[in-house]
Amino acid sequence: MITISDNLPTSTLLELKVGDEITNEHDRFGTIKDIEISETDEFLMFLFQLETSYIIVKKLKQVCLL
To answer: What is the pLDDT of residue 62?
Structure first.
């Protein structure tokens, strides 16, 4: 089982696939049934649909100002 949170690297979140077992360390856990990724100017949002619930993870985008 993989523990996911906002602190997990984006690359690790992108590697997750349907069928993986995940938990949010609190009250939700299960097998991924579907994954939706949304993007805005400020963040990426991952919605992991489980059998009976879901887990949402928001990752702020890295902004590099030169």
So the answer is: 75
- Cβ-based neighbour number of residue 8 at 10 Å: 15
* DSSP class per residue in 4-46: --TTS-HHHHHH--TT-EEE-SSS-EEE--EEEEEE-SSEEEE
Residue 1 DSSP symbol: -
> What global pTM score does this model have?
0.86
Angle at the Cα of 15 from the Cα atoms of 50 and 24, rounded to 5 degrees? 40
The Cα 52–Cα 45 span in angstroms is 20
